[in-house]
Specification:
heterodimer; A: mainly alpha; Four Helix Bundle (Hemerythrin (Met), subunit A); 78% helix; B: Cytochrome C Oxidase, Chain A; 17 helices; 67% helix; binds protoporphyrin IX containing FE; binds copper (II) ion
Chain lengths: 202, 534
């Protein structure tokens, strides 16, 4: 690192790569904090309503399909693994393997979505909608908002895949991949909390 | 830009390139700052006009110009636009963007493209809010349930617009935090940072940590209206008070998002125009962080009469008193800086002194409201309206005007007419007090807020308040004309007309694209006034 004085002029901008790496990572952590707070509001609502209506939660959660839920949990955990393997590959300078793992991760995200689609359809089929009860409202808002985040993550990873195929990343430069990976792990983590809270109420 | 060599782009003034597109696509933090400044000022004028209409309706008892529903629409528009499109983005997005890189000795913010994106998102949010005006909401800026669920007006679009604005706010805050951490020039240690930077840092933390909560509250409100999820609907087992908790969990910290940058401005202006080092640097710096922290634990002081246990109310009341401590620390330190200084009453200083005086009134009346026994009577009266305007106009907007006059030469490269600026200030100061002081009295007499009409015994004070609003309006109009005229007829501004020691004044007015020809090496804090040549 030559310090801040040596300036490279790219598109009117110029930051030391080390500073850029640290900045992006720091920025993503801050963004992850905002996401946790966003869901924090929902977790707060969950806590309040579960305390208020314990029987409703105990009874109605039985309607949820535990098998599909568990399957989706496995799918997401697996996708976090493939994501991590992707990052390791590019750190070792293997962009082709990165592309493969990114593709796998995206496909697993897609599998999660398809699974969710069947779950929602089954609910609608039984005339269960958001608004049917507080419990189902929570179920739909929490999983729905999470689903939106899965889509956002998939869009991000698709961008990374395109950039990888265009040869933008190497073992010298992979910050965006790593940072996108962080985001994907967050999406995964939130589901790990949602699953027991909604499907596995004792 | 591609055709210029590095040396050239470094010396081209940032205002040089003309054409709307060159502005809308520029990632230069200074250009983005100017775009925010113009946008928020436009919304300030729109919301200000609606305020004048509100005050005109209240000039006398009975219907004056608008019916009750239109009145509700007007105060909703006024509040929502002033809060979400003007004062929350406000100083942070405009002056923060301009000053942070310059003050810390950087060439730009950490993520310039994200910065531009934040501005576009702001525009998108603003557009959605404007579209919602085809069936304008009548809920007040606080959107309390259950009314906001039931009203036939377009609450969904308005709240969705605010939701979108939240992204802009979060991304700006995130950008500033990373910038301040990572891009400080060599030697610019934390304890050498200008206090405006400390203030911006505290504000950015609040933006990042509080905004997601309003985002989820508004999403849930929208889901309530679209799907009837029932969280806030007692008929479905939900709880309307829950919405108030969510709303204020953001909106109380948000009042500090509004005021802390203005406090930062005051900390910059006071030393320059009293030629003395700032007194109590660390106390001012850390009190910003203290305010930010405490502000997360006082939200329920807006809800003392909404239904809450006495224990909870007492705790929140106590915590509210706590917030006054770091606030008072700042006021004491500014006053101590003034003590025995050689005070130069230029227009920025006049606004800064007005801030100290008016904000103190606003802050102290906040403490009255934080006291349970007093708030039971004063809640939802004009006393609260007067309090919030003393802190928001008397505080934030005075700080905003101080900033406008102080950094105008740097931003525009021109000087405005100082005499006219002082006249405008006099109108603003007098008009403000004539408008809002009577409202404290009206509040203690029991006049409720948010009504289009009032019984005759409140007439004379309301009349006085409405007349005050005209004086205030004239003052702001004269100020605007003066500043606009300066752009065309003003003298060329020197590099450092007010003899400030801060880094932004050590570059040309207006600064070049890349800010610094060479990144400076900082060896001292920026407040060494009254010694040597300074
Ligand atoms: C010493 C600091 C402050 C204290 C102790 C304080 C206290 C309070 C309390 C207790 C209320 C609720 C009154 C009620 O509804 O019954 C209130 C309302 C309000 N305050 Fe403050 N405040 C302080 C500073 C500020 C600042 C700096 C701002 C903004 C820049 C602000 C803006 C507001 C607004 C907008 C409301 C009214 C919200 C509404 O109901 O529409 N306050 N304040
Ligand atoms: Cu408050």
């Amino acid at each position: 690192m030559e310090g801040v004085e040596k300036i490279e002029h790219v598109h009117g901008h110029h930051v030391d790569p080390v500073v850029e790496y640290q900045s992006l990572k720091f920025g993503m952590w801050l963004f992850i904090a905002t996401e946790l707070l966003l869901f924090g509001g929902l977790f707060a609502a969950y806590t309040i309503f579960r305390a208020k209506f314990p029987e409703m939660f105990a009874e109605q959660h039985l309607e949820l399909n535990k098998t599909l839920g568990a399957l989706n949990t496995a799918v997401l955990i697996l996708s976090s693994l493939t994501m991590a393997l992707g990052v390791t590959s590019i750190q070792r300078g293997k962009p082709k393997r990165l592309a493969l793992f990114l593709l796998l991760t995206i496909l697993l995200g897609l599998a999660f979505g398809v699974n969710k689609y069947f779950e929602y359809s089954a609910k609608f089929h039984h005339h269960i909608y958001p608004g049917t009860s507080i419990f189902f409202s929570l179920y739909f808002t929490m999983t729905g908002l999470h689903m939106l985040h899965v889509f956002a993550g998939m869009a991000l990873l698709t961008t990374m895949l395109v950039l990888t195929l265009r040869g933008r990343f190497s073992d010298k430069y992979y910050t965006p991949v790593e940072v996108s990976g962080l985001y994907w792990h967050l999406v995964d983590l939130i589901w790990i909390y949602l699953f027991p809270l909604l499907y596995l109420i004792a | 830009m591609a055709n210029h060599t590095i040396a050239e782009t470094i010396t081209i003034p940032y205002l040089e390139e003309k054409g709307l597109l060159s502005w809308l696509t520029s990632t230069d933090h200074k250009r983005i700052s100017i775009m925010y400044l113009l946008s928020i000022s436009t919304f300030f004028v729109l919301a200000g006009i609606s305020a004048l209409l509100l005050r005109f309706e209240l000039l006398m008892p009975g219907k004056t110009i608008v019916d009750a529903h239109t009145y509700n629409v007007l105060f909703t528009f006024h509040g929502a636009v002033m809060v979400f499109l003007f004062i929350v983005p406000g100083l942070a997005a405009s002056f923060g963007n301009f000053l942070i890189p310059l003050m810390i000795g950087a060439r730009d913010v950490a993520f310039p493209r994200l910065n531009l994106m934040s501005y576009w998102i702001y525009l998108l949010g603003a557009l959605i809010i404007l579209i919602s005006l085809s069936k304008p909401a009548d809920t007040g800026w606080t959107f309390y349930t259950p009314y906001s669920i039931r009203t036939g007006t377009d609450v969904i679009l308005l709240t969705f617009g605010i939701f979108v604005l939240g992204f802009s706010s979060i991304l700006t805050g995130l950008n500033f935090i990373v910038t301040i951490h990572k891009l400080r020039a060599p030697g610019m240690t934390w304890h050498r940072l200008p206090l405006f930077i400390w203030a911006s840092y505290a504000t950015a933390i609040l933006q990042v940590l509080a905004t997601p909560v309003i985002a989820i509250s508004l999403l849930l409100l929208i889901a309530e209206r679209v799907f009837g999820i029932g969280f806030f609907d007692p008929a479905k087992g939900g709880d309307p008070i829950l919405f108030q908790h969510f709303f204020w969990f953001y909106s109380h910290p948000a009042v500090y998002i509004m005021i802390i940058p203005a406090m930062g401005v005051i900390s910059e202006v006071i030393p320059v125009f009293s030629r003395k080092p700032i007194f109590g640097y660390k106390a001012i710096a850390y009190s910003s962080l203290a305010i930010a922290l405490i502000s997360f634990f006082v939200w329920a002081h807006h809800m003392f009469v909404s239904g809450m246990s006495e224990v909870a109310a007492t705790i929140f009341s106590f915590l509210t008193f706590l917030v006054a401590i770091p606030t008072a620390i700042k006021v004491f330190n500014w006053t101590a800086t003034l003590y025995k200084g050689s005070i130069d009453l230029k227009s920025p200083m006049l606004y800064a002194l007005s801030f100290i005086f008016l904000f103190t009134i606003g802050g102290l009346t906040g403490v009255f409201l934080g006291a349970l026994a007093a708030d039971v009577h004063l809640h939802d009266t004009y006393f609260v309206v007067a309090h919030m305007h003393y802190v928001m106009i008397g505080g934030t907007i005075m700080g905003f005007f101080a900033a406008l006059h102080f950094w105008y030469p740097k931003m525009t490269g021109k000087m405005f007419n100082e005499k006219v600026a002082k006249i405008a200030w006099a109108f603003v100061f007098i008009g403000f007090n004539v408008t809002f002081f009577p409202q404290f009295i009206l509040g203690t007499q029991g006049m409720p807020r948010r009504y289009a009409d009032y019984p005759p015994q409140f007439h004379s004070l309301n009349e006085l308040s409405s007349i005050g609003s005209w004086i205030l309006g004239i003052g702001m109009f004269v100020m605007a004309i003066n500043l606009l005229r300066g752009l065309f007829n003003g003298e060329k501004a020197p590099q450092n007309p007010f003899n400030s020691l801060s880094l932004e004044w050590q570059v040309p007015s207006p600064p070049p694209h890349e800010n610094f020809e060479e990144i400076p090496h900082v060896t001292d804090w920026t407040y060494g006034y009254g010694k040597k040549s300074a």
